[in-house]
């Protein structure tokens, strides 16, 4: 479950961290645009300079805190201060609604911070901020123009802020579901581990130790071969409970069935594959492993599995006999044929005496990959929000309501805008068609032509009807409205594709603005809203996809728990045990530790379990390999035995014949029969760990001391005097 935690944070905390980062980037971008536009002014008033400095300091601090430890109520206060200062900055005239010098540029910031810091009752706080803004606009203007402009701007920004709140709520709901599932999986995994530990102990004691003893005494017997094969299959993982949808699991099982020693290298997160693709890829890879077992003359192979959202590559490599010429019929049918049936490729190369390499590569549809419409993206987002089309439609509807309400308020002081109304109607129809298609299933790539083309054409036709003074203000609300199709499709395509879809809009807006006399300094205020909104939505969607990945992951299986329990129980002993079992009936197997010694090592793993006794197990095994008879009498093993292991290392150097190890948590005793020569007895105390004592005579030598001096010191017990 560690994959679901980032830097020690829970999944939910990392989600909130992502939200804070996105809000921080939005505020930082708006602050930079404000600073650039202020710096481009023709003249500066000292009050204006100090006011601008205060605004930049306040919102800049908030942005940095969002990017750092996260915002709090204090940051809402700082943004509100910036809003008040911006409203009272001295101006020659009352800025029109939405203009670059209007305090509207500071209205969305406190609302976004409220969304970040208040999980509940955010709407009343946002409405209070909007009411404060309208009041400030009215009072600072000293006329009804300020009231009208304030209402127009507040409605526009409230639509954007409420849409952001809706999206964040969807993200938090998906995050909460994922967090609950992680907790459930964690409990199931603990239960599986507990059961697997009991089952592993029984298997090691009842099956593995007797099998290893049989391999050492009667290796050619049919019963021994059968027992070795059964033990080997269980060490690779039990067949029941296996996750058949996991390619890596299937390859491990196939290697175990073929009794191959396989190094499996897995790169990339697990991804969902179409059933036909998974079956063909696994079938071809299994056939390649069979060929290694039957024809290479080797029992070892390397399998590399590279997983990508829209691609999968499997490479099977051995250093066996190899081949020359054209691959046989079996390879062409069982491997190449399978790959061709799913549009994948298989490359088989062999060199006589140097081995064979089989490389299998499948890639999803090229068009879908280039457009960021991978099936994996669609599957994950549907796992998080069920119906992305409905969620996208609701979010876009909230945004559209704000834009249209602003358009309605504009009729108070601006002539009717029939071209803008007609363009908005066309865009609304496109959004409805897109979201309905998203609800039915994966979006067809051709739909992106509508998203990228229709809004740009609408802007080209309708935007010239907006006055030069109104361009960049609320009068040009159609600019933001035209981004709605791209924001809707952001739920099922990649962020880079969303930004590309907005490029035609940006080109048209730039051409129209320059034609109406806008300067280069004015363009950022006009252009940056669309990509900024798209990036914010993309962050929300990315978090929901991440939650969807958690929600679609299978819970920890019994086979996974078994494999972990076996690895923990046997540790470094696992590999030589597997090699010994595979060597049954294989005359070409490389020699290794005797099965009898391995059986004793497995017993040590049973009675001295865990990493705290790993050094002692290694020393006991090393003693046995010198030919010494080793007996252990530890009915209740000490918590740790590192010092005892060091003492046995000193004993092993003079080649004892018979060693008996006994003791408890406080003191360990090692008896060596017969005793070592006098010259060894003389230097033995200097070779033993601190606090160990020697009592020796020619017939036997007894050494005693703490099994783990570090544990003794931590407990605060009195240390024995050095011997």
Molecular structure report:
Among the domains are: 133 residues, no CATH class; 129 residues, Heat Shock Protein 90; 108 residues, 2-Layer Sandwich (Heat Shock Protein 90), CATH 3.30.565. The strands form 2 sheets. A 5-stranded mixed sheet has the order 1-2-3-5-4. A 5-stranded mixed sheet has the order 6-7-8-10-9, with helices on one face. It is elongated, with a radius of gyration of 36 Å. By secondary structure, it is α+β, with helices and mostly antiparallel strands.
Short synopsis of the structure:
The chain crosses the membrane at residues 21-41, 47-67, 122-140, 146-168, 391-412, 418-435, 447-468, 488-514, 526-543. This protein is α+β, with helices and mostly antiparallel strands and 723 residues long. It has helices at residues 11-39, 46-67, 73-87, 108-117, 122-141, 144-217, 222-235, 247-257, 275-295, 329-341, 366-370, 375-385, 388-410, 418-440, 447-462, 478-481, 484-489, 495-501, 503-515, 523-527, 529-552, 558-570, 574-582, 595-607, 614-625, 642-652, 678-687, 709-715, and strands at 261-267, 300-308, 311-318, 345-351, 355-363, 629-633, 658-663, 668-673, 693-696, 701-705.
Characteristic key phrases:
Heat Shock Protein 90, 9% strand, 723 residues, elongated, alpha+beta, 5-stranded mixed β-sheet, single chain
C-alpha-based Rg, rounded: 36 Å
DSSP summary, beta strand count: 10
- The proportion of residues in beta strands is 5-15%
List the strand order in the largest sheet: 1-2-3-5-4
Q: Report the structural category.
A: alpha+beta
Q: Tell me the major beta sheet.
A: 5 strands, mixed
Mean pLDDT across residues: 83
> Judging from the principal axes of the Cα atoms, what is the shape?
elongated
Beginning-to-end CA distance, first to last residue: 48 Å
Question: DSSP helix count?
Answer: 28
Low-confidence stretches at least 5 residues in length (pLDDT < 50)? 1-8, 238-244
């Amino acid at each position: 479950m560690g994959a679901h935690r980032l830097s020690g944070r829970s999944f939910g905390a990392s989600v909130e961290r992502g939200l804070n980062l996105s809000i921080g980037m939005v505020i930082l971008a708006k602050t930079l645009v404000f600073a650039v536009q202020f710096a481009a002014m023709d003249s500066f008033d000292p009050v204006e300079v100090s006011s601008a400095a205060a605004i930049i300091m306040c919102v800049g601090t908030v942005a940095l805190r969002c990017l750092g430890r996260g915002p709090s109520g204090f940051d809402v206060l700082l943004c509100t201060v910036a809003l008040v200062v911006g409203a009272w900055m001295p101006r020659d005239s009352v800025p029109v609604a939405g203009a670059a010098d209007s305090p509207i540029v500071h209205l969305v910031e406190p609302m976004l911070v409220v969304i970040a810091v208040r999980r509940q009752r955010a709407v009343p706080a946002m409405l209070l901020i909007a009411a404060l803004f309208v009041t400030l606009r009215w009072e600072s203007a000293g006329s009804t123009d300020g009231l009208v402009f304030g209402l127009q701007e507040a409605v526009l920004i409230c639509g954007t802020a409420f849409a952001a709140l809706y999206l964040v709520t969807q993200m938090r709901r998906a995050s909460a579901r994922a967090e609950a599932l992680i907790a459930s999986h964690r409990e199931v995994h603990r239960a599986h581990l507990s059961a697997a530990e009991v089952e592993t102990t029984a298997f090691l004691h009842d099956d593995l130790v007797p099998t290893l003893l049989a391999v050492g005494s009667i290796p050619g017997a049919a019963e021994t071969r059968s027992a070795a094969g059964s033990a080997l299959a269980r060490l690779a993982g039990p067949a029941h409970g296996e996750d058949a949808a996991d390619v890596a699991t299937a390859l491990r099982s196939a290697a175990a069935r073929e009794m191959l020693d396989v190094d499996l290298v897995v790169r990339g997160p697990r991804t969902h594959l179409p059933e036909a693709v998974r079956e063909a890829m696994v079938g071809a890879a299994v056939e390649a492993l069979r060929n290694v077992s039957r024809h290479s003359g080797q029992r070892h192979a390397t399998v590399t599995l590279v997983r990508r959202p829209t691609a999968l590559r499997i490479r099977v490599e051995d250093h066996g006999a190899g081949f020359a010429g054209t691959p046989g019929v079996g390879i062409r049918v069982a491997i190449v044929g399978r790959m061709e049936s799913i549009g994948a490729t298989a490359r088989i190369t062999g060199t006589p005496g140097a081995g064979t390499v089989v490389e299998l590569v499948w890639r999803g549809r090229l068009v879908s990959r280039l457009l960021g419409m991978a099936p994996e993206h669609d599957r994950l987002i549907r796992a998080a929000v069920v119906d992305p089309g409905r969620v996208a439609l609701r979010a876009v509807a909230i945004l559209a309501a704000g834009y249209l309400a602003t358009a309605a308020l504009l009729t108070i002081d601006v002539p009717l805008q029939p071209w803008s109304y007609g363009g908005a109607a066309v865009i609304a129809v496109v959004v409805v068609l897109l979201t309905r298609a998203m609800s039915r299933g994966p979006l067809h790539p051709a739909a992106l032509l509508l998203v990228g083309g229709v809004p740009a054409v609408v802007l080209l036709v309708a935007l010239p009807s907006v006055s030069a003074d109104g361009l960049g203000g609320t009068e040009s609300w159609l600019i933001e409205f035209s981004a709605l199709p791209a924001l809707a499709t952001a739920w099922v395509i990649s962020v880079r594709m969303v930004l590309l879809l907005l490029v035609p809009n940006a080109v048209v807006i730039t051409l129209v603005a320059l034609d109406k006399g806008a300067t280069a300094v004015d363009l950022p205020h006009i252009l940056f809203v669309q990509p900024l909104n798209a990036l914010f939505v993309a962050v929300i969607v990315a978090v929901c996809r991440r939650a969807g990945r958690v929600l679609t992951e299978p819970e920890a299986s019994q086979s996974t728990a078994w494999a972990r329990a076996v690895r923990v129980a046997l540790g470094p002993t696992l590999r030589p045990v597997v090699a010994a079992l595979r060597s049954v009936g294989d005359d070409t197997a490389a020699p290794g530790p005797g099965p009898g010694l391995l059986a004793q090592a497995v017993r040590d793993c049973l009675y001295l379990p865990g990493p705290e006794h790993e050094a002692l197990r290694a020393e006991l095994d090393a003693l046995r390999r010198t030919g010494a008879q080793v007996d252990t009498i530890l009915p209740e093993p000490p918590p740790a035995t590192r010092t005892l292991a060091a003492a046995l290392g000193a004993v092993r150097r003079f080649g004892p014949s018979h060693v008996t190890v006994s003791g408890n948590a406080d003191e360990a005793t090692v008896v060596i029969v017969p005793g070592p020569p006098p010259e060894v007895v003389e230097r033995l105390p200097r070779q033993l760990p601190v606090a160990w004592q020697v009592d020796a005579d020619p017939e036997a030598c007894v050494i005693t001391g703490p099994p783990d001096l570090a544990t003794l010191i931590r407990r605060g017990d009195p240390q024995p005097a050095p011997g």
